[in-house]
Amino acid sequence: MRSIVLPHATTTDICLWLLRRYRRFRVQGNSMTPTLQPHQEVLINPRAYRRALPVPGEIVVVPHPHQANLLIVKRILFVESDGRCYLQGDNANESTDSRQFGLVPLSQIAGKVHCLLP
User: Fold this and answer.
1) Are 60 and 70 in contact (CB under 8 A)?
2) Cα 117 from Cα 96, distance rounded (Å)
3) From 3, 31, 81, 107, active-site residue
4) Rounded Cα gap, residues 2 and 67, in angstroms
5) What is the overall mean pLDDT for the chain?
6) Is 41 within 8 Å of 54 (Cβ atoms)?
7) Lesser CB count within 10 Å: N end or C end of the chain?
């Protein structure tokens, strides 16, 4: 799996967030360390997959399949042809992910993590 280094937000990214094209998300827990640290904030693009399929290695935010009010951030390991993806945290020992809840439909992806907020 290739690793993605997330860029920091640019002025354009901040403008898109202010225009509500991007959403702000705060990371909780250690499941994505070392890529994302607890309490770190990222901008997500909710429209990223309207015209393109996710690519393995990208980081996404999805609702937890068993806790509707909880959003989780995970990396895509693979995408099946039927439209579901396998998600896993970068810190597998601290992550609840597709190993426990199975494949996640692409329609459940709330957004692609685009960049880090400073």
Assistant:
1) no
2) 24
3) 31
4) 29
5) 94
6) no
7) C
Instruction: State how far the Cα of 17 lies from the Cα of 45, in Å rounded to an integer.
Output: 9
Which domains are seen in the chain, by residue range? Answer: 11-116 (2.10.109.10)
Q: Is 112 a catalytic residue?
A: no
Angstrom distance (rounded) from CA 117 to CA 11: 11
Q: Cα separation of 17 and 21, whole Å?
A: 6
pTM higher than 0.90 for the full model?
yes
- 31 catalytic residue (yes or no): yes
User: Using one digit for the tens of pLDDT, what is the confidence trace for 11-56?
Assistant: 999 999 999 999 999 999 999 999 999 999 999 999 999 999 999 9
85, β-bridge pairs: 79, 104
Please tell me the distance from the alpha carbon of residue 69 to that of residue 15, in angstroms, as a whole number.
Answer: 27
Residue among 74, 95, 98, 112 flagged as catalytic: 74
DSSP-derived 3-state class of residue 99: helix
